[in-house]
Structures are given as structure tokens and as C-alpha cells.
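User: ok so my PI wants both of these folded by tonight, can you help

Assistant: No problem, let's get them done. Here's the first:
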Amino acid sequence: MIRVLLAEDQGMMRGALALLLGLEADIEVVAQVGRGDEVVDTALRARPDVALLDIEMPGRSGLETAADLRARLPGCAVLILTTFGRPGYLRRAMEAGARGFLVKDGPVEELADAVRRVLRGDLVIDPALAAAALSTGPSPLTDRERDVLAAAADGSTIADIAARLHLSESTVRNYLSSSIGKTGTRNRIEAARLARHNGWL
């Protein structure tokens, strides 16, 4: 029996996934959580074979959680299931140690098959997304540029960003200027929009 942990912040979606996977003769959903910061502790208690993670969850993202699981429970295979099929997300998921990446609009049979395959050690990636990731290429942003650009995305002032990230205002301006240059955009709002669209933030 394949033991699965489900991490999905939308209760109805989580319940539907649990119900559908539970119909498979060889799969048992042993734990469900609605927050990213609950995944690791729950996984350490439930000892799943596969963790099915959404990306955008309160508390901690699925991408951050995937890396935590790889470190704390290396025997658990991670499969990312998301609404957001962004090339940068795929690349970051693989770097975090995920064994699979699927978008939510696929058939449930494909999901059950992916659970079995990642447990066997296969890499399972949505083909269209894999092609998009190859054509988009890696993120040009450094980790710090990404942090500053993400903080700027809501329209915060330079002073607010500097205070929030414990940086000087001139350093924030330099990071934003560099991000705008690397993304080929005209301002920080466009840079943040492009970076978010590509899954770099």
C-alpha cells in the first residue's frame, strides 16, 4: 500500500483528491494538511511514501517544503501538484528535490500513476511545462534580487522594502535596478509581473 500525505490549502480540493486517490486499490491517504508549515511535522508522524504538495499555501510554500522534506525525510518522494504551471516553479521544484510536477487540470488516473512512478524513482513532469521550462531558461535573478523584487510587487516604497528586508535604501535601489535590467522590463512593477509569470518569484 502506498502511503500518501496531501498538502493543499483549499479544503474542497483536498477532500476531492483524498477521495479520488482513496479509490485506488494500492493507495492510502494517511494525512492531510492545509498549511505548508504543517507538512514536515505531519510527515514525520505519518511516515508517507509520497507527499503531494501544492505550491501556494499559507505558512510555507510547497517549494520550500519540498526541500525540508528531502532533508528531514529522504525516503518520502515529493510530487508537486499545482494550478500554476509556471516554468520557473518547475525548475525550482526540481532543485528542491521534487520527483514530479503536474498541473491540477489533468485526469485523476494520471495523478495516481504519477504517485506510483515517483515512488519507483521515476521523474514525472507535465510535458508541456517541461518544454516551456526549457525555452524560458533559468531565472536570471539572484536570491537577493528575487527577495527585493517580491517585496516590491505590492507597490511598497523603497523605504518600506529596506526596513522589511533590513537593507539600506541604496542597496534596495541597486537590486531593483539590476532586476529590471535582467528582465528587460521598464520598471519594477513590470519586472515583478514578468518574474511572477515565469515562476521566478
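One down. Here's the second:
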Amino acid sequence: MTIHKEGRRLLLILLLILAALNVSLWLGGVTDWLRWGVLVVSVVFYLLILQFFRHPKRHTPAGEGLVIAPADGKVVVIEETEEPEYIKGKCRQVSIFMSPFNVHVNRSPVEGSVKYYRYHEGKYLVAWHPKSSTENERTTLVLETPQKQLVLVRQIAGALAKRIKCYVQEGDHLHAGQEFGFIKFGSRVDVFLPLDAEVLVNIGDKTKGGEQVIARLKS
């Protein structure tokens, strides 16, 4: 299993703490049930944190106009909406909720140049709250495809996810499926597409970031 760079230091520190705790219990004068109980809880807890930071390889399909899922999770919103920050008009929104058990890597949904990037401080409402997209801590990333179409991607922090990482800046060029960020312990990613985009997923569908096609842009 490949571990994401965001979790390597945390996992090392956690391993040392848990190892020291268990060694002290096994050397100390405590009952066997307590020793084994703490050991089992330590192993389970470490494995849970380990899976939060897994970084699997993904095989991104190629094709003009394909929009790839930016994250693992579940589709919770598909709607026509107004995007006021950059597009300033109507567009098609697809939102993916990332639970603490999903892969937390965020990947570019399309190939394109980064035309706009902003980080916004904010609240930590639960990620499925209707106002989380505009009031929570978030980043906004706008990509311009080779066909001059605009796709806006928004990373949104939630009640648990209070650490957003975005590794790009304006002027960068991203390939479809390329990693651009990470949200620790889940949350939500919104994708805003042109109104005429064909959405290929439904509410409740599970997505696989970097591999699954969620929409198709009109040429």
C-alpha cells in the first residue's frame, strides 16, 4: 500500500506513541486483559488512520470532453445552479461527499490550465449542509480545457475535515486524473460544469477518483 505524503509523518509519530504505550504496559504490573485490550485497540486504530492516507494508483481514461471524478465518495448533488465566485452564471453542479473511509486524494477532472485559484477561510458546517459550499473553509480552482471550456472545482472542509491541501497555482497545467490536492478525513468536492454538459452519474452513485467518468463536455 502506498501512503500519501500528507500522512507519513503523522503515521510515524502515531506508531512511536502507540509502541511506547504498549511496551510500557507489557513491562509494567498490569493485568493481561488490559495489555491485550490496549494492544488490539492500538492496532485497529493505527490501521484506520493508515487507510485514511492510502494513495492508490489510478488509470485515467482518455478522450476529448471526458470529466473524471475528482474524488472517491458518493454523489450527493446534481443540479443546475448559479456560481457567483468566478463563472458568475448558471452551470451544472456535481458534488461528491468523501467519508472518512474514502481515499482523500483530489484529482483534476479535466486537462486544462489553472486560470484561477483562491483559498477562503470559513466555517466547518457538515459537508452536506446546503451552505457549506459558500460558507465553509474551501478552495476554488478553475481549469480552462484545450477547447476553452471552464470547469470549476471546489474543495470544501467539513465538521471533521479541517485541513485542505491544494498543490497548484495559477498558470499550472494539469492532466485529467492528476493529483492537485488532499482533504484530511473526508469532506466534499464540488464540480461546476457548463450547462450543456452531459452528466453520467446519478444521486447516490459511488465514484472512484481519477478513473470514473462522471460527465461529458459538449464539443
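The two ends are 39 Å apart (CA to CA). The chain is about 20% helix and 35% strand. Good luck tonight!
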